[in-house]
What does this fold into?
Amino acid sequence: MYDIYNFVTGPLVWVSFAILIFGSIYRLGSMYALAKKKDAVSLAYMDWKFSFRSIFNWLIPFKALGWKKNPVLTVVTYVFHICLLATPILLSAHIIMIEESWGVSWWNLPDATADIMTILVIACCAFFAGRRLLQKDVRFLTTGQDWLILAIAALPFITGFLAYHQLFNYQVMVIAHVLAGNIMIAAIPFTRISHMLFAVFTRAYIGSEFGGIRRAKDW
Amino acid sequence: MQDAASSWDWQPGERVILDSVTCGKTHQWQEEPYVASDGERLAAIVRLEDETFSMCVNGKTWESSFEKLWKPCFSPDGRLVVIAQQDGEWSLAVDGATWEEFYAYLWHPCFSADGSVIAAAIQNDGQYGMSVDGTTWSNLFDNANEYAISDNGQSTAAVVQTEAMAAADLAAFRRGVYTVAVNGEAWKNTFMNAWTPTFDAHGRKVATQVRLNLYEYSIAVDDAVWGQTYNCVWEPRFNPGTGEVVAPVRIAGAWGMAQDGKTIWDPVFFQCWHQQFSTDGKVLAAIVAPTFGEFTVAVNAKPWSTTFPVVTELTLSTDGKRAAALACNNNVDWQVVVDGTPWRGKYDMAWKPVFSADGTHVAAKVEKAGRHAVLMDGKAYKRDFEHAWDPVFSPDGSKVLIRAVDKGTFVRIVATLSDFSSRG
Amino acid sequence: MGIQERLIEDVGLREGVSRLNEDSIQKTVNAVFQGETGARLKAYAEICLRCGMCTEACHFYLSHDKDPTYAPAAKVKQTIGTLLANGGRVSPDQIYSMAQIAYSECNLCRRCVHYCPVGIDTAYMMITMRRICHKLGVTPQYIQDTAHSHSATFNQMWVKDDEWTDTLQWQEEEARDEFPDLRIPLDKEGADVYYSVIAPEPKFRTQLIYQAAAILHTAKIDWTMPAEPGWDNSDMCMFTGDFEMMGRLKRKHFESAQKLKVKRIVMGECGHAFRSVYDVGNRWAGWKHYPVPVVHSVEFFWELLTQGKIKLVSKYPGPVTLQDPCNIVRGRGLGDKLRDVIRILVDGDIVETTSNREHNLCCSAGGGVINCGPPFKNARVEACKAKADQLRATGVKTIIAPCHNCHGGLDDTVHKYELGMDIKFLGDIIYQCMERPEA
Ligand code: HEM
Ligand code: HEM
Ligand code: SF4
Ligand code: SF4
It folds into this structure.
């Protein structure tokens, strides 16, 4: 058991991060190469000012028409993404592990807060799952990939929560958690979670087209 | 034309041809002026008090007047030609006298290189074709477009529709109902589309763009299609030296140049069009875009190093050693670009550059702040004008004829090279 | 629910698919994917989160009782999405439904761009689907016929070379009863303004040419109209997916203006043609921006009215509402100028529809949908229900719509939903209210 724990918290973490970093570089690089080759006409219209104008305006909750018209989803998705990113980075358990092996540490969330954020992420995932099952248009759109990334996103939180509260078998749970966390990290470049990498550019592109050529806002 | 020019007055200096460009006869209105190549006459359509139209030439109206006149121009041999309507029918009036033949409609007057032959597109009873010096093609068609006349005036051609089509008849269109008619004789093959028929130097052969189906384009020469098809093609041109046909062709999304079906310029351009041969056919130049949004000129497939958002009006010197074109950005900041280097000034508009016969000098008309100026080798003639026409070089290239209107008078200036200062 | 239950019989589509089999389909589809699409399509297909945020954007969805198969992402899923998922191998019948979706159930209006958090351009996916359909030879009969006309005559309505100038001269003659010295100057080199129209004007709506001539004459503009093909700025090939012809049309149009050495092109009240010149056709030709500036009527009228070149003797009685044409407002930011012009022309308020300016609802005629003709008419007008509801809610009697397509679409809409509203071009109102030059 301990060996497994050591493996998943040691070499496997290196592997996952390597996949994340090199995978992301590869995905972004090859996408750019493809764009240069096949979408030169689109690239020609990329514009820094209008790219950031669009990104900035879309970062503000309820600013864009899409956010306004989907208020519940807007709240949920902001909560989800913020907690999703902030919790693991600011979690004391994680920071301690990093400090032990690297000697660096940073401010951490109080455990109770992190716990609530974890519950929020799980709740958001439940909400997303509910939409996929119950809301007609979303159900029509849903594919296996969507369930996959939802599961990948939810699992580290569910297992982390169970481990933290020492429910079920702690040992098994921690290993399951670390495994799920690793999977998520490694899955980013190669599943639809790649929206984390590409959304910036698709947003920037449409922002440039709307700002520069169509002279209209795109939010 | 150069031969004709040798008989013109090339005495340096300025001559006022008309003190006033306003027509002497009372009129309701006078339209825009046209001038003869030799600069000796200025003509404009006038609407007379009796609601008829006439041409006013150097202040005097034609004796004849018409229900309607439009599209006046001077032929290369100096005749004044205008489309004229009488009793509801149309003809071409040449120096005041119409062709004997009248048509339900007539348009697109065009000339042989020396101007001796005049042709026009015509329609009678819903049938289309051409008329050459008043003689109608023996066959007319359900429709005709894209008219052409050979340089020697011996032949005319147009794209014609060979059978009538019902409304929204996709099947007939797909079968192909268009072809080229030369002197009224339609080719045997029909195509989905045909465009820009063009003659060889002797007026004997005709090449045209064809679309074989919705996706395949090629070139047909005298009714025979190249063995090769392309994503797209543009206008073919005959090599005046060899008679070979070249056309820009699009292969896998990029443009190159093909000759008789074989690629001679690799398809590396985002765009390639308006190709042109030197007189001996040894030099082939075209307007190209090496990358998206950047245009320039390629001479024998080698693009100039400078690029511009828009390039137009490519001109080659007769020997093909030099090339000039216009460049602009969004239709302003026009520049004259010679051999890849733009002249210093930027203008609100510029006109096609003109080479002297030996290719040593280039001149062009430009416009700035509503005034026209004439440039030579990048230097401006000492004064500008309300309106000027394209400069013409003397046959020996030592003088430039400037035809211009300023302060209401029409002047004819023979300028020497030293009359062009370096103001830019 | 679903495309299978709403298939519409169209000769062009039916004959088109009858020539296909799975092999030929796969070959063509993959040739387009590999040869003509790249990172843009790939990224869009990959990162669409199937979140459904765009659903509410689309008037097809809103007008069809929230039928999820009309949602933007759903239309992508049923077309490009299915092709990608199957490696391009689908049946001819599937192509039929995909063509119907791409040509008649999306106006390429890009309203959904305002809803998608990752910036996916559904219209691009639909255009790509149309490109594939064009390559497969599966296009609705009527719009394909206009594409044929474009290729044979360089205009949309089979107007022959002589009919064009003849019509202009006829309108000039007519107008001289009212404006004795009015001219429609043909091929006048060096004019400031090249006035360009779409082919339905000389064909059916000659009074629009008359009005334009009257306005340009009154404003003392130095203008011209070309006597040769190239005069039609419209572009149905852009909408059928025939990009080669689209490029050919734009080349002809711009070179026609370049040849006449004009300063700029002013075009009539048309939306799609504007999109074609500033955004689409110019790119195929290689021009990053248009080579000759093209000024839409809305902007041109704004100039004439604010610079006092046209003065009014009366104002049009308001209140009015307006239709923001997608291609000039969401597509080119003319929403403010349009309102300025209306404020000058109308005595009374502008009552906005709920969705306005760049968030407007499309008239559901745009993007070539109206050009698909009678077979698709009922479906098209049904898709305008959401718009009809918004128009009715304004409670006014006049809609100002500076776009031919919007006019056509709203005409049918006003009729079907019994809105009892008049639809006006700006030109109609200016012509009616302007001060005539002293005779
Ligand atoms: C890659 C390796 C990872 C390791 C080694 C790791 C390790 C741990 C450990 C040791 C705990 C504490 C369990 C306890 O308190 O006994 C924990 C908790 C947690 N981890 Fe991770 N983790 C990893 C990745 C992730 C990732 C990627 C996420 C989320 C995206 C995540 C989210 C959480 C959460 C939400 C908790 C529980 C917090 C709570 O309920 O208070 N972890 N993790
Ligand atoms: C930092 C970069 C990220 C950005 C800008 C981003 C943005 C978005 C946006 C705009 C949406 C669509 C709105 C919605 O449905 O909620 C979305 C959905 C989603 N994101 Fe992210 N995201 C990021 C990172 C991540 C990561 C790291 C994950 C993790 C695993 C993730 C998982 C999801 C999931 C599962 C959904 C779908 C929700 C549903 O089922 O509707 N995102 N993201
Ligand atoms: S019609 Fe407009 S809103 Fe609907 S999918 Fe097409 S582009 Fe999007
Ligand atoms: S809003 Fe964007 S990401 Fe969401 S389903 Fe629509 S297209 Fe896809």
Residues A 77, 81, 84, 128, 146, 149-150, 152-153, 184, 193, 195-196, 199; C 49, 51, 117-118 surround protoporphyrin IX containing FE (ligand 2) (CB under 6 Å).
